[in-house]
Amino acid sequence: MALPPAWSPAISGGGQKVSFQNTSSRHIIVEQVEVEPGEAAGFTRLHGEVPQRIEYGDYLSASVLKGFGSGPERLIVTWRFEGETGTQRTERKV
Questions:
Q1: Euclidean distance between the first and final Cα of the chain, in Å?
Q2: Helix (H) or strand (E) holding 80
Q3: What is the spatial distance between Cα 74 and Cα 84, in angstroms, rounded to a whole number?
């Protein structure tokens, strides 16, 4: 049986908010969130600090400012399942 994906596609919360739901059926520890392109990092604010525990069904959220074709294009989340040491990376367009 295949496992569900760990994160949903980007969910727009209206305005500048974007969220990703933990759909893994397990708790996740977010270790790092990177912004691409790197020069757009100043246009992104993560809601909460890292490391951050995201329970199954909960959301990782950020405010993303875009305008005139500039700003973040994707977020790269480095994470691991709670209780494990190996990390994984997930990229999502924003």
A1: 30
A2: strand 74-81
A3: 26
Strand partners, 73: none
Is the previous residue joined to 9 through a cis bond, with omega within 30 degrees of 0?
A: no
Question: What does the block give as tokens for 24?
Answer: 């893994």
Distant-in-sequence, close-in-space partners of 3: CB < 8 Å, separation ≥ 6 = 24, 25
Model-level pTM? 0.88
Give the pLDDT confidence score for residue 35 in this predicted structure.
93
Catalogue all structural domains in the chain, each as residue range(s) with its CATH number. Answer: 11-93 (2.60.40)
What's the pLDDT at 31? 97
Q: DSSP string spanning 20-80? A: EEB-SSS-EEEEEEEEESGGGGGGEEESS-SSEEE-TT-EEEEEE--BTTBS--EEEEEEE
CA atoms within 13 A on the CB side of 39: 1
pLDDT of residue 1: 42
